[in-house]
Amino acid sequence: MVIITPVPKKGKDLTQATNYRGITVTSAHGKVYEYVLIEKAGLKNINQSNLQFGFTERLSPTMAALILSEVYSEINGKDLLFITTLDSQKAFDVSNHQILLDKLYYLGVDIEYWDVIEDMYNGVTSTVKWQGDTSLSFSIDQGVRQGGILSSHLYKQYINEILSELETHNMGISIGNTYAGCPSCADDIVLFSNDQNEMQEMLNTVYDYSSDHRFLIHPVKSNTIVKSVNK
């Protein structure tokens, strides 16, 4: 059983339950266990896209921002640059456990450690702690734990295939011979293209992936910006 502590989102209406983020506090022993599991199972950045900058050692979101600067400098002599920012809605909370476990299996994670991860997510129950009181327990059938050491590594594998698919099909901008079409920070993805039709194709690809993997793209936090050399 895990205990969820609701943490209010900054500047939000605190009378709405959706404006709280559920954080699971892991014990010191649990953190050590997850660190060891990450190393033993080889989960640290396994098969990770080069354009994933979130929760990655020696990388930061600032590097993704630098790619935007470089991409913008490449449009000299070209009319338009389409920039789409995508936010996966409640991404960590809706990751399907079976889909995630299947991905880890096909990545070749040792079956012994795969079984450990399956046990961690099989039959999980939780309670909510609020103002000194604790709720009745309930089952958790989806999502990776907010605040868990292992969670960010698992989520990156859950989303990684969409970045690889865009790169494999060379959808979006390249800087010289280096693909730069979809820099990402965990669940936040930016798409770059010089062509409106190609951008639509990239969006269709992301939509199909999100439908197959049972998560939604946030309709308010996602936007497309059209930039030109002069504006």
Question: Into which percent range does the helicity of residues fall?
Answer: 25-40%
Query: Biggest β-sheet, characterized?
Result: 5 strands, mixed
Mean pLDDT: 91
Secondary structure: number of strands:
12
Unreliable stretches covering 5 or more consecutive residues = none
Percent of residues in beta strands: 15-25%
Instruction: Tell me the series of helices and strands, N- to C-terminal.
Output: EEHHEHHHEEEHEEEEHEE
Protein name: Reverse transcriptase domain-containing protein
Pfam family, one: RVT_1
Domain Reverse transcriptase: 1-231
Characterize the structure shown.
By secondary structure, the protein is α+β, with helices and mostly antiparallel strands. The protein has one domain. It contains seven helices and twelve strands. Strands 1, 2, 4, 5 and 6 form a five-stranded mixed sheet that branches. Strands 3, 9, 10, 11 and 12 form a five-stranded antiparallel sheet that branches. A two-stranded antiparallel sheet has the order 7-8. A hairpin with a 2-residue loop joins strand 4 and strand 5 (133-134). Helix 4 (97-106) packs antiparallel against helix 5 (111-121) and helix 4 (97-106) packs across helix 6. The longest helix is centred in the C-terminal third of the chain and has 18 residues, at 151-168. It starts with a strand and ends with a strand.
